[in-house]
Specification:
By secondary structure, the protein is mainly alpha-helical. The chain has 15 helices and three strands. Helix 6 runs antiparallel to helix 7, helix 6 packs parallel to helix 8 and helix 8 crosses helix 9. The radius of gyration is 21 Å and the shape is globular.
Amino acid sequence: MPQETTPAHHASEAERLERIALKFPQDGEQLLLQAAAHWELADERPRASTLYDRLLADSPRNPLLIKALNAANLWEHGHEAEARVLIDGIRAAAPRDPAPWEIIAETLEAHDELQAAHDCFTAGASHLIDGDEVPYEAGLLLTGRHRVRRLLGNPHDAWDALADAQHSGDIPLDELHDPKRLWALGSEDPAELRAEIDRLRAELGERRAALSRPYPVAVLHWPEAELTELLAAYPTLASEYPSHEEHLTRIESGLRDLSSTMSNQTFGIVTGTVPSYEAFAAAEQTTPDAAALLPEYATNLAARGRATPWPPARNAPCWCGSGHAYRACHGTPPTA
């Protein structure tokens, strides 16, 4: 059954997340960011701004991300001048995290500030990309820059070529970002064209909202020692985990399959421990040997900010803990 997307549902989810934040103050920043995103989707933007201000007052781990999200939200409910001040401050701070760059650039793009958006995408990419090795998270900056340059009518440059090279979709970026496709609806009805433009802007808004809860799709990973302990205590779960090697293989293949069909999502891996899992089962008033509890446990860890992004950069350590580079470990697809 598809998840509800009504304003009432989002408001209810925001209130639920705020209650969870009270129970898990150590994870409050991530939970309140999710709550703020739901307030935005409920069209309760002043309530979202209140949460962003509250987070900024509490010395957050990632203040520039929060300021970027707040800037996007403020502009949407009529506080453009305040949003611009925040955007200028973020650019001056030159964050090493790509998310603030992407959010402020897409905010400018959504409000037809195309040259300013181009400059933000370019500045972010300049700070975060060195040579041809593109960190996974920073790849979205190149994609956004490519899109805006097409809208501006700029010719391809070296970074556009790099964006093309790292794009993994079936449809080339030039086709995805062709401004003329807005006129390919088969109609000259301005209402239909406006609907298409509004849809594209909504996609940008959903992407900004997703950045405040970076890993909505998370897969549970058990280190070998933890899996051994788990199966010794709860042998009925052995059907879920035939072997540790198979467990690792399923994680990578499952995430590859998901990423090929859910291109607008971000993905992560959460690492389980037996004591944490048992505590979660007790909180849910059920027993740890219930297999249906495993994905709920993964979702809970991800909501509390415990997920690490997938895939890692090719030369980064593999997520499995082997110590090998990802490209030499699970980053190399098995041959048929």
